[in-house]
From TrEMBL, chain A:
Pfam families: Complex1_LYR_2 (PF13233). GO terms for cellular component: mitochondrion. GO terms for biological process: negative regulation of oxidative phosphorylation; respiratory electron transport chain. It comes from the Eukaryota. InterPro entries: Complex1_LYR_ETFRF1_LYRM5 (IPR045296), ETFRF1 (IPR052000). Belongs to the complex I LYR family. This is LYR motif-containing protein 5A.
Automatic annotation (TrEMBL), chain B:
GO terms for biological process: amino acid catabolic process; fatty acid beta-oxidation using acyl-CoA dehydrogenase. GO terms for molecular function: electron transfer activity. This is Probable electron transfer flavoprotein subunit beta. Binds 1 FAD per dimer. Binds 1 AMP per subunit. One of its GO terms (cellular component) is mitochondrial matrix. Residues 26-220 form the Electron transfer flavoprotein alpha/beta-subunit N-terminal domain. It comes from Clohesyomyces aquaticus. The lineage of its organism: Eukaryota, Fungi, Dikarya, Ascomycota, Pezizomycotina. Its main location: mitochondrion.
Length: 86, 257
């Protein structure tokens, strides 16, 4: 089976790499994150419908935003605890 | 006016999530093989500089600057990934005691950077989370004779007037000053963006200049001597008392009554 569209394939790999990079700072560790991320992508590997793949990429983008927000909030709360509540 | 030239000095510190350990000689905190990242307050200042540009304030250049060991290059890359245009790295030797910088030394260095780069606005983090000195910005403003607004929670630039709002006890204070000036950032100024992988890659193409302390004139050596570094005493657990009499006798025992 050949991939439906090379452009989409490229997008999927790109978002996967970006998520992997984000995972380096994950609170429960990189290994934890990496295996789960890999599983999540592998479970969708049989998607052939273009619209469904696009939806998957959208979901990945959403997860990326959520993780960035998680990192920001975690840091903000820690710093607030340390510096604001004197 | 052709546009603001913003200088953002940053510092590489032990990551906020790492619990620092005192070294065996009790002279400093262990830094070897500990995760480091950019001082969170400095991320706020980079973000603010980038946001000024995005708010269509004429900004001609955002320069990130740091003094530190060779690895401090990474945080300059992060700064450029967030939106700084170029950076200068003053490489210091971690092991060489004569190149250990204190806030005054950094302020003196920055004074020369400001003069050689013709900076109009300096945005610094209010303090670094390792030394917690909270001095560099104020000292720099003093050396330059510029206006300063510390712990800004909102910054507005209009022409050459800058309005800074800061959180003080029981309210907010609004300061107005003319450029050039020094601003230090507070925690609630903005929400720093994440330096994403593609942006980090792009940042590798941005210019990074390497310098040493010898490129600057003056004496930057430390004036303070660290006598001893110890960890805070462990917290003692509390006790539950049965009733009022129990509490009073406990208080008497502790000498509080």
């Amino acid at each position: 089976m050949s991939p439906p569209t090379p452009a989409l394939r490229h997008q999927v790999i790109k978002i996967y790499k970006e998520l992997l990079y984000l995972g380096r700072d994950y609170p429960q560790g990189y290994e934890f994150f990496k295996t789960r991320l890999h599983k999540a992508f592998a479970s969708q590997k049989d998607l052939a419908d273009e619209a469904k793949i696009r939806a998957g990429i959208k979901r990945a983008e959403f997860v990326k935003k959520e993780i960035e927000a998680l990192y920001y909030l975690k840091r903000y709360r820690t710093l607030r605890q340390r510096y604001d509540k004197a | 006016m052709s546009g603001l030239r913003i200088l953002v000095p940053i510092k590489r510190v032990i990551d906020y999530a790492v619990k620092p350990r005192v070294n065996r000689a009790q002279t400093a905190v262990e830094t070897a093989s500990v995760k480091h990242s950019m001082n969170p307050f400095d991320e706020l200042s980079i973000e603010e500089a980038v946001r000024l540009r995005e708010r269509k304030v004429p900004v001609s250049e955002i320069l990130a600057w740091t003094a530190g060991p060779a690895k401090a290059q990474d945080i300059l890359r992060t700064a450029m990934a967030m939106g700084a245009d170029r950076s200068i790295h003053v490489v210091t030797d971690e092991k060489d005691a004569s190149s250990q910088l204190e806030p005054l030394g950094v302020a003196k260095l920055l004074q020369q950077v400001v003069q050689s780069e013709k900076t109009d606005l300096v945005i610094l983090g209010k303090q670094s989370i390792d030394d917690d000195a909270c001095q560099t910005g104020q000292m720099l403003a003093g050396l330059l004779g510029w206006s300063q607004a510390t712990q800004a929670s909102k910054v507005d630039v209009e022409g050459d007037m800058v309005t800074v709002t800061r959180e003080v006890d029981g309210g907010v204070e609004t300061l107005k000053a003319k450029l050039p000036m020094v601003i230090t950032t507070d925690l609630r100024l903005n929400e720093p963006r994440y330096a994403s992988l593609p942006n980090i890659m792009k940042a590798k193409k941005k210019p990074l200049e390497k310098k040493t302390l010898k490129d600057y004139e003056g004496d930057f050596s430390a004036r303070l001597k660290t006598v001893k570094v110890t960890e805070p005493p462990p917290r003692k657990g509390g006790v539950k008392v049965e009733d009022v009499d129990g509490m009073i006798s406990k208080l008497k025992e502790l000498g509080a009554l």
